[in-house]
């Protein structure tokens, strides 16, 4: 029987060194690999990857979307406000779809949403 363990989003990067530094500063995710053109970013038990693209017609930097599911969103939101990642007005509480959440864009226009279930 197959047991699903995790999914790992891979987001596009037009400048890997710049983006690794930005994620460390703005989100606390740290690069844990030394691969050319590729980065594995981790924070606690969460992981996502960045892959460098040339930004050409044949190898475009395409914006993606990632949702990070947490429990206890307020301390993380306050941390991200202090880091300058989001403004204090970005937190949405008790959305019609049953979440507390906030979002932001990275330097490649990847949309990052952090959310928690209200229930």
From TrEMBL:
SUPFAM superfamilies: Glyoxalase/Bleomycin resistance protein/Dihydroxybiphenyl dioxygenase. This is VOC domain-containing protein. It comes from Neolewinella agarilytica.
